[in-house]
Each structure stands twice: as C-alpha cells, then as structure tokens.
Amino acid sequence: MKFDNEIEIFINDFVKDLNAGTASIFAGAGLSVPAGYVNWKDLMAEIAQDLGLDINIETDLVSIAQFHLNENLTRSKLNRKILEEFTEDIEETQNHKILAKLPLSSIWTTNYDELIEKTFEKENKVVDVKHTNSQLLTTKPKRDIVIYKMHGDVKHPNSAILTKEQYEQYHQTHEPFINALSGELTTKTFLFIGFSFTDPNLDYVLSRLNFRFREEKRQHYCFVKKPLLGDYQNPDQATLDYNLKKQSLVINDLKRYGIKSLKIDSYDEITQILSEIDLRYKKRTIFISGSAETYLPFDRNEAIGFVHKLSKKLIEIDYKIVNGFGWGIGSSVINGALEAIYSNPSKYTENQLVLKPFPQFESGNKKLPELWQEYREKMISQCGITIFVFGNKKVNDEIVDADGIMKEFLISSQQGNICLPIGITNYMTRKIYELIKKEPNKYYENPEIVLPVLEQLADSSKTLNGSIKIITEFLKTLKK
Question: Which residue ranges form the domains of the chain, and what is each CATH number?
Fold first, then answer.
C-alpha cells in the first residue's frame, strides 16, 4: 500500500527502533473501543445520570466521577461499573494481534481491561503486568513484555484511578510510575494509539520532560484522524472549519512534547500502518529452509561451504536468521552465522541467530506430524523472507525429495513471505522454483521484480557462491 511521505518516514524509523529494541506503545481507550469496550464517556453516562447531569453536555468527565463520590461518600457504584464494562471476554482486534507480534519490550496504557496482556499471552509471550507501585520492584522471570497499567486493573477496581482527587494526587501516590514513564519517554520512541491527550497524568509527565530537556527531547508519534465533512462530529461546514482549526492548534502544541502527529483519513489506516510495520520488520528476518542427505551434483565441501558463506553474509548485511536445524544444512547455517557474529561482536549479536530444532518426541495428545506443522508455522511467522536450499532425504536407502521443505514453502507463501528457492541446488528446491514459475502472480505482489532473480538462482551455469551475490543484491533492493 502507498502511504504519504510523512507516514512512510515514520514506518521506516519505527522499524529501526523495533530492531534496536527502543520502540514502545502508549495505548488509550481508542485501542480497546473497537473490540467492544466502552470509552470514558460511555463509562460515565450512568454516573452522570445519577447526578442529574447530561453526559452529552459535560466535558470534564473526571469531575463527574468525583461528584458522584462526593455525593455518595462511596465509590461502590464506580467500582461496579468498571467490573461490568471491562470484565466481559471480548475478542481482540487486529491491531492488538499485530502489536503482540512485534518485538516490543514495554507497553503503557491507561486502560483497565486485560485485552492487551491476553493477546500477548496468546502469542506465547511471558507478560509482566504492573499496576501497583510494589509490582515495579519485582521482575517476572523470562518476561517478554512489560505492560504498565498506570490507571489500574479491572480486577482491582477499588484502586483504579478514576476520580479527580486521585488524578490530582497521582504524582504523590504513584510517583514510581511517573519516574518509570519519564525514563522510557527519554530512552524509547513511543507510538500513541487511541489516545486523546486529555489525560492529566500524562500531561504532568510530558510537561516536566519538556521543561527538563527542552530542545533535546526524543521524537514520539501519535495518530490523528482528520475531521471530515459529514461525519458525526462535523455535520456542517462551520463545525468542520472550527474543528480543523482546533486540531491544528492541538497538533502544534504536541510538538512541545516531541510528539509528531500522523494524520489519517480513517481509523482503518492504523491497522494498515501497523501491518506494514510488522511486514517490514519481518523482512529483516530470514528463514533458511533445507535438508540434504546428498549435495549432488556439487561436492559436499563446496555445498556446505556455500551454506556457511550464505549464512555469514546474511548476518553481515544485518539480517536475522531463523533455522530449524535441517539435516545436512543446520550446522553450516550455525557456523556461518557465528563466524560473522564472533568476528565483530560489537557490530553483530547472537540475537541475529534463532535456532529452533524440531521436537523428536510426541507431546501430550499430539502426534509428531502435527507438532512439526505447528512448529513450522511458528518459526516461519517470525520471518518475512524464506530461502530454500537442496531439499532431499534418505528413505529406505533411496534419496527422495524432502516433503517437509514443500510444507515450509506452502506455509511461507500463505503467510506472505518472499520465497527465494536457489534452484541450482535441485531436489525439492528446484520443484518449488518450477511451481512458482508457472504462477508467479500467485506468490508475489511484484513478480516482475522477483522472477528474474529466481531465474538467475536456477541457472545451472551459475556457481553456488555466485548465487550469494545475487541474493544479497536483491535484498538490498528490499531496503529501498
């Protein structure tokens, strides 16, 4: 999909932050509302009615919660509303699913619901949730993501930040959260999603960071939907003109905090942008699929040397490699990658090599073929490019094509990976090339770009080592 220049630059920069481990998300109510949860206005509607107020007229919604507490001297109904509105088991949105796949180390949210953490858990990630000061003192072992719920959690409604008094005292009662957020806003790039920037706690932190760092503040981003004539907030031209002017002032004010506004026409564009971020991030990770009992017509040393050099080169041009330790191939992938990593440990890291040896024993009620299929899907889902080499095995003393390589090709193509079979290595890899050649439009968005590369990789007059140069030159075009 084509994006305007401003969003295109953001996507490229945010992918760089993801690769550097310095990207984070700040999620507001707008992230959960599409899933079916209420926004702040809907949450306070019944509370306002109890007070004899019209929720459609009131703008200071934090004060409504405080008024209710003042009048009743108990927040039992406020707590009940939180439980009623945010405990329902709701399916996560596509945006939640995409975020859960990204290598984020932290997410901040003012939401009470558990949708974010449940989505990450479905991705088999270890989640460390923080919603009290004391939880900041402990670290969950082997955690993948920290979710800071700075306004509390639905399971503990009595301590949820809801009233005006709680907001006013937050800098004292939750000082550790403010310190932690201040640190992350200084060291990470935040993308604000579904956030209106009317939260007094965040305003408190941003204003102090702005005072402390002034011109040295870090760049952050947020999505801003353009007012459109005819939508529910802009029924006429006069209202549209007013809202456009106000939005312009808000966008300019956010610049004080280092927050750049990304204008979108509809909220659906957020999903498209997040999907593109996920796609471009995964294109930095390559799955090497292959197995070999024999390397004919190539000499064994020549063949394993080629896999070694290919793996080494991929690390050197800053790619991550995922490998299932295929027979006759896996060791060369490992050795090549490690040679590059250890030759320059200040530039390359062991995180660039992900090894996923296949399980050899049944687990629970699942047979090995089922386990292997799930394993393949999980491995390949981390990648955006799949390279195929050789693809043969021995069955009853006979060399046959390895069907597992074809399975990995089908999974790769279904997931939208760019598939690069090195056809001169023959066997199943050659069959994959022939399959693609028949229907290139089925496997590539731009087959006219990829097919000439595959033809060179299948040209028997080319050398194995020559194919490394062909692949690296093609990968350079993907970065542009």
Answer: 5-37+88-279 (3.40.50.1220), 284-479 (3.40.50.450)
